[in-house]
C-alpha cells in the first residue's frame, strides 16, 4: 500500500499568496486558498493618511518622525498572516510537507514568523517570483524540479 504524502505548495509575493495542495495520485495542483493584500501595492504616501505631527518642548520645536517604513510594516503583517495559516494547517494535519516559493527578499520575512515545527516540514524553498505562472505552468515547474519522483 502506497503512503500518500500531502504537499502544500505556497506561491507568494508581497501582496498575493496562493496555497495549492499537490495531489500525488492525480498529479494535480488545485488551489485551496488565496490570500490577498492589495493595500501592499500602494505607495507609502498612499498608506500614510496624515502628515507627521509636531510638538513643542523647552528646547524648541520638533516633529515626530516615522520609525519604520509603513509599506514594509504592511508586508510584514501579510507574511505573519501567511505563517499563521501554515501553522494552522500543520496543527490540523492538512499537509505533511511544504514547498515555499517567494522572492528572495520575502522568504526571510516569512521564515521570521514560521513556527519551528512548520520549518521542519519544508521540502523545498524556492527563492523566485513565480506568481505570474498559470496553475499548469506552476505544476510543471514544481514537478520537474522539486517534487520527489513518484
Overview of the structural elements:
The chain has one domain: 2-Layer Sandwich (Nucleotidyltransferase, domain 5), CATH 3.30.420.60. Strand 4 and strand 5 form a beta hairpin. It has 5 helices and 7 strands; from the N terminus they run βββαββαβααβα. The chain has 150 residues and is an alpha/beta fold. The longest helix is centred in the middle third of the chain and has 22 residues.
Topology:
Blueprint (H helix, E strand, L loop, with lengths): L6 E6 L3 E7 L8 E6 L7 H4 L6 E4 L2 E4 L6 H22 L5 E5 L2 H10 L2 H4 L2 E5 L8 H11 L5
Helix pairs in contact: 2-3
Average predicted local confidence, pLDDT: 83
Query: What is the terminal-to-terminal distance?
Result: 14 Å
According to CATH, what is the topology? Nucleotidyltransferase, domain 5
Order of helices and strands: EEEHEEHEHHEH
What spatial form do the alpha-carbon principal axes imply? Answer: elongated
Q: How many domains in all?
A: 1
Approximately how much beta-strand content do the residues carry?
15-25%
Q: Can you tell me the CATH class?
A: Alpha Beta
| Major sheet attributes | 5 strands, mixed
Task: Quickly give the CATH architecture.
Answer: 2-Layer Sandwich
Number of helices: 5
CATH superfamily: eRF1 domain 2
- Strand arrangement, largest sheet? 3-2-1-6-7
Helical percentage? 25-40%
Task: Determine the oligomeric state from the structure.
Answer: single chain
Question: How many β-strands, per DSSP?
Answer: 7
Radius of gyration: 20 Å
What are the low-pLDDT stretches, counting only 5+ consecutive residues below 50? none
Question: Could you give a short description of this structure?
Answer:
With 150 residues, the chain is α/β, with parallel strands linked by helices.
Amino acid at each position: 500500500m502506497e503512503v500518500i504524502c500531502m504537499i502544500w505548495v505556497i506561491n507568494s509575493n508581497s501582496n498575493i499568496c496562493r496555497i495549492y495542495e499537490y495531489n500525488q495520485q492525480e498529479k494535480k495542483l488545485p488551489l485551496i486558498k488565496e490570500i490577498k493584500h492589495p493595500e501592499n501595492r500602494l505607495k507609502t504616501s498612499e498608506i500614510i493618511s496624515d502628515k507627521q505631527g509636531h510638538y513643542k518642548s523647552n528646547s524648541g520645536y520638533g516633529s515626530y518622525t516615522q520609525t519604520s517604513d509603513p509599506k514594509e510594516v504592511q508586508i510584514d503583517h501579510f507574511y505573519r498572516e501567511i505563517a499563521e495559516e501554515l501553522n494552522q494547517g500543520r496543527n490540523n494535519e492538512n499537509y505533511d510537507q511544504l514547498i515555499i516559493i517567494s522572492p528572495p527578499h520575502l522568504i526571510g520575512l516569512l521564515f521570521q514568523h514560521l513556527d519551528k515545527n512548520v520549518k521542519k516540514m519544508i521540502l523545498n524553498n524556492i527563492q523566485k517570483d513565480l506568481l505570474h505562472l498559470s496553475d499548469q505552468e506552476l505544476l510543471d515547474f514544481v514537478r520537474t524540479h522539486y517534487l520527489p519522483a513518484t
